[in-house]
Amino acid sequence: MKYIMRTLRYWAKTKLGIYIRHFLNIYPASMSLSYGEVSSDLFLWRDANVYDNYFNLNHLGPILNPNYTDNYKALLVIYGCDGIRLASQEFILEYGKANLVSINDIIPKNKKKKGGTFAIFHLANLKIMFDNQKICLAERGIACYKLKSDTSDFMSSVHGNSFAIACNPTTMAIRLIGCYQKKLHQYRCQIDLSDSLYCELVVVNFLTKPLVVCVYENCSDNKKKIKEFTMSPGGMITLDSRYDFDVNSIIEFESHLNFLRPLIFKHYTNHFDILHG
Description:
This protein is mainly beta. The chain has four helices and 20 strands. Strand 9 (about 140-145) and strand 10 form a beta hairpin.
């Protein structure tokens, strides 16, 4: 019996097994990532005329393998709100050195307004870093935001929201890794929104196909659909409580993506905060 269970677990993780799990909706995988690929969240950047956007880009050796001290490249790729690639830049990461990267400096001047996403791919030699183990390296780090009108040095920051995109370091091919779920999934915001002047909910589609999303208020017997929209692959949508929903309501997202968790920007009189929904 143990042999049968081990065999089933092994085949369930193969490409054919994942396909069958999705087709039958039995423990569908949340992402499709292959060994040797490096992955990243799709981090947000906000309107670069209003916000300063930063990312803490660090050599991962001290965290994952202190014996790996080689310098290596990292690739930063910028996408627009429609998922279209806008720009990219390579960095050399030195062991023990921290880097605060200004995303605004990389965004093309004529594309700074609507916001979008960006990804970080660490192009280290994974076989050496992990002693030939079958490992996938993911960037889940810290994005930082500051209003240009804010005279203080403080920034609001948040770590990655979900595995979204992968790069093959050999071919440099980049692909979205979200998995379409046959069954509709609901994600309910778990944060009280009513203590802010207004708030914004931002969601990202990391499927390779357009994603239809329905948004509901109250999420009880009297729940009401307030919005329906379609996001392009790699695209993002922002909902604003001043126009789209009531901050006193509980907000629920429904889609064929199993973990459509929003990032929430809560705005107050003199500051804003950002957190996972």
